[in-house]
Specification:
The complex is a heterodimer of chains A (268) and B (106). Helices cover 75% and strands 0% of the residues of chain A. With 268 residues, chain A is mostly helical. Chain B is mostly helical and 106 residues long. In chain B, helix 2 runs antiparallel to helix 3. The longest helix of chain B is centred in the middle third of the chain and has 23 residues. The radius of gyration of chain B is 20 Å and the shape is flat. The chains are: A mainly alpha (268), B mainly alpha (106). Chains A and B meet through helix 5, helix 6 and helix 9 of A and helix 1, helix 2, helix 3 and helix 4 of B.
Chain lengths: 268, 106
């Protein structure tokens, strides 16, 4: 922190001193304790977590992104990765393990039990989901173009592309919601029941895999909504825009997960 | 300039034209092929293998170009690869060593 003050970056030092991440951490701790103790404690944890997140975002919205925080000291080119980006990649490594566990267990159940829904013969609407896959791929393109735009300092293109990404994410979720309603109420694909002699486990694994992915997309859409709001307030500049890149990393990762899920759940 | 920021480095790197639209076109075409793989009338195992290879190729393109792994220091790839290494252990545990076949619920 001192080196930043010495280099004339008091805003970075002030940003680093925010109380809100601590509140978020306490909220998470209390929330998880509440899961095993008492729902009221869980509620308190959620309130603390949400308050901390909103407080942190409010602080961030009032000041430019400090994308260069922690990276001002010149380093050899082979190690030049910001601390924030490194942290996001480590988070994504844990997400790889998380999704792999869910997909792996589902696949294991499939090969050991049989009677799984296959393309064209089950209740799944493959063309509709193919369209949704295309929408997610489009959103990856608009996301990376948003980053390229602000790297050139083009505010107008940033707003266009990041808004498009947000809307494409909302569209993906809307189509998935429509698919869920059709499958659950019309096709009879439930958590413990499935139509036409299909293994009931198929319903459980289908909703878990696609639902967990959908919740990640929802989180990405929330982050994208915030980034969109901030971009319209001029919060990102050619020099300060690492948040766009980090949100983009997460968004592309969600796309990568869907690429595999689409193949495994819908096409094989 | 005595100090160097990631921002300026990023801006310098982006000067080179990156093939974002070309990657998108490949992703879209491969997705179309995936949806219509049935027309090639491949054997079941070959079709599954083809679909997995196509999905892996698409994921690799997204990671390399959209997530900029191609432009990052090589050691950064070790972080996701560590996760994938643990996934390999999981795959062996769940599928590779086999296990009892369970009768489906009625």
């Amino acid at each position: 922190m001192d080196e930043h003050k010495a280099e004339g970056h008091p805003a970075a030092a002030a940003h680093h001193g925010s109380i809100w991440p601590f509140i978020i951490g306490i909220g998470g701790c209390v929330g998880y304790a509440g899961l095993v103790m008492d729902l009221r404690i869980l509620g308190l944890g959620i309130v603390l977590f949400v308050s901390g997140t909103l407080g942190w975002l409010r602080d961030d919205l009032r000041s430019p992104s400090r994308m260069d925080f922690g990276t001002h000291v010149a380093r050899p080119s082979e190690v030049r990765v910001s601390a924030r980006k490194l942290a996001v990649w480590m988070f994504l490594a844990t997400e790889i393990m998380f999704f792999s566990a869910i997909i792996g267990v589902s696949w294991s159940l499939r090969v050991r039990t049989g009677n799984w829904a296959t393309p064209g013969q089950g209740p799944l609407n493959v063309p509709l989901t193919g369209l949704n896959t295309f929408i997610l791929i489009c959103s990856s393109l608009t996301m990376v173009e948003a980053l390229a735009a602000i790297e050139r300092g083009n505010q107008k293109q940033l707003k266009v592309f990041i808004t498009a990404t947000f809307l494409l994410g909302v569209t993906f979720l809307s189509i998935q919601g429509f698919e869920y309603v059709k499958l659950f109420f019309e096709e009879g694909l439930r958590f413990t029941a499935a139509p036409d002699g299909i293994n009931p486990l198929f319903g459980s694994t289908f909703y878990i895999q696609t639902g967990v992915h959908g919740s990640h997309v929802f989180g990405g859409v929330l982050a994208m909504g915030y980034a969109t709001l901030k971009s319209f307030r001029g919060g990102f500049t050619k020099e300060n825009h690492e948040a766009v890149e980090l949100i983009g990393l997460y968004w592309h990762f969600v796309d990568v997960v869907w690429i595999f899920l689409f193949t495994i759940v819908y096409l094989i | 300039m005595s100090t160097t920021t990631v921002a300026s480095l990023g801006a310098a790197t982006i000067e080179k034209k990156r093939p974002y639209v070309a990657v998108f076109a490949i992703l879209a075409i491969v997705t179309l092929l995936e949806l219509n793989v049935g027309i090639f009338r491949l054997a079941s195992n070959v079709q599954v293998g083809t679909l997995v290879i196509m999905a892996t190729a698409k994921a690799a393109l997204v990671v390399a170009y959209y997530m900029h792994m191609r432009y990052e220091p090589r050691w950064l790839a070790l972080i996701p690869l560590a996760g994938i290494a643990l996934v390999a252990v999981l795959v062996v545990a769940l599928v590779g060593i086999g296990g009892p076949t369970v009768t489906p619920h009625p």
